[in-house]
Design goal:
Blueprint lengths: L30 E2 L2 E2 L13 H26 L15 H24 L4 H17 L1 H4 L2 H4 L8 H15 L1 H18 L11 H48 L1 H15 L1 H24 L8 E3 H8 L5 E3 L6 E3 H21 L6 E7 L3 E8 L8 H7 L4 H12 L3 E6 L5 E8 L6
Parallel strand pairs: 4-6
Antiparallel strand pairs: 1-2, 3-5, 6-7, 7-9, 8-9
Protein name: ATP-binding protein
InterPro entries: HATPase_C_sf (IPR036890), HATPase_dom (IPR003594), Sensor_HK_TwoCompSys (IPR050482)
Organism: Flexivirga caeni
Length: 428
């Protein structure tokens, strides 16, 4: 008889193992050792200047109200005063231009405040409209009036374009926009002789530079905050993975070590190797428990003693050899990789030796074994087969540290790695 598909087979029982909780993963979520793997999701608002943009739109709407008020007063004015000649030669066209000003201000204000469209082309359009409205003064206003009064859109409203340029492209561009619009306005009014005494230029220049600097400061602060948040998320993710590995992989390795020791023979050798990997994995987890900063200092000698397995001869200075924590972590990982290769490939009777030297300007690690060595062409063959341990795990890590790894080996000559790293850390 065949087994019923809904019933457990021989030696099986229904339900979860005794003494273990049931862990169910959400649909699409990976499971590790029966546990749902939670992922750390970090959301960082990429636009730190958004509050600046929204605050600038309050200024924009205030400038629109001012421009409409100035238009009402100017369209009723006479040039010269008391002459009975209207200041505006084309008042209807001037009102059409004011309508354009109001419509554009509403559209651009919504675009900037709520990111309804890309900002760079919007700012370019705003610059064009502002220039056209400023130049239109000579079409609708008599020279007798605009020679002594503000141009049509008013300096107050022109400032909006300067603010937009500064927020988008920084203080240099903002200052240049301020100077450019002030020169345009003074040119239309034929007031270049008042360049030093007129307040237009210093006001627009100051606004452009100040807003640009403020935008750059908050953007830089946002970048630093994003880095800190991502580091915190990475730390939590490492801690979570460490717990998963401890509850799963380490327990299996520990069981293999104990059972291998009980069985002896080939199983005993497998148990010994499992024990070494268990110790290496525990060391790796303890290394990842802290995130070393740029200025953190760690004793390389102590770290090497923790990762070098029993039976390997280690020699080093009597005192501590301090290096940045990240450098120590990488060097310990390189040494562990080399010693793993010795255990796998150097032969059953091979002995390994590790020498640590502190030469002041650089630290030198020598890892040597008296095993069978590496045959000529073997490394190139392994790399061609996609086994990149030597080229990436060892040489790649040393290159990232600004150091170098030199290999000397040959058939029946053993293998010697010389690892050199400058105290300054990664070069360039």
């Amino acid at each position: 008889m065949g087994e019923h598909p809904d019933r457990p087979g021989v030696g099986q029982r229904e339900g979860p193992p005794l003494g273990h909780a049931v862990h169910r993963a959400a649909p699409g979520r990976p499971v590790l050792y029966g546990r749902s793997v939670e992922r750390v999701v970090v959301h960082i608002d990429p636009d730190a200047t958004l509050p600046f943009w929204r605050g600038a739109q309050v200024f924009r709407f205030a400038s629109v109200a001012y421009a409409i008020g100035a238009q009402i007063v100017s369209v009723r004015a006479q040039a010269p005063p008391g002459s009975g000649i209207p200041a505006y030669s084309h008042p209807v066209i001037s009102w059409a231009l004011i309508a354009l000003l109001v419509i554009w201000s509403g559209v651009s204000g919504l675009v900037y405040a709520f990111e309804l469209a890309p900002r760079p082309p919007t700012v370019v359009i705003e610059l064009v409209i502002t220039v056209l409205l400023t130049v239109s003064t000579v079409w609708v206003v008599r020279p007798e009036y605009y020679h002594h009064h503000q141009s049509l859109p008013s300096t107050f409203w022109i400032t909006n374009a300067v603010v937009s340029v500064a927020l988008l492209w920084g203080p240099a561009a903002g200052g240049a926009a301020g100077v450019g619009f002030s020169l345009l306005s003074l040119g239309i009014e034929e007031q270049f002789h008042n360049l030093v005494t007129d307040a237009t230029t210093p006001i627009l220049l100051t606004v452009g530079v100040t807003m640009g600097v403020g935008a750059r400061i908050v953007s830089r602060a946002q970048q630093e905050l994003s880095t800190a948040v991502r580091m915190q998320a990475a730390t939590k993710e490492r801690e979570r993975l460490a717990r998963e590995v401890h509850d799963g992989t380490l327990q299996v390795l520990a069981l293999m070590r104990r059972r291998g020791a009980d069985l002896g023979g080939a199983a005993g050798e497998l148990g010994r190797l499992a024990g070494e990997q268990e110790q290496a994995l525990r060391t790796l987890i303890s290394e990842q428990a802290t995130v070393p900063g740029v200025d953190d200092s760690t004793d390389l000698r102590t770290q090497l003693q923790a990762v070098i397995p029993a039976g390997v001869n280690f020699s080093g200075p009597a005192g501590a050899v301090h290096l940045p924590g990240s450098v120590v972590t990488e060097l310990a990982a390189v040494v562990r990789t080399i010693l793993d290769n010795v255990a796998r490939h150097a032969g059953p009777d091979a002995q390994a030796f590790v020498l640590l030297e502190d030469l002041g300007g650089e630290v030198v690690l020598t890892v040597r074994d008296d095993g069978v060595g590496i045959p000529d062409g073997r490394l190139a063959e392994a790399e061609a087969q996609g086994r990149m341990g030597v080229s990436k795990s060892i040489r790649g890590r040393m290159a990232d540290l600004g150091g170098e790894a030199v290999l000397e080996t040959g058939p029946d000559l053993g293998t010697e790695w010389e690892l050199r790293v400058p105290r300054a850390g990664k070069a360039g």
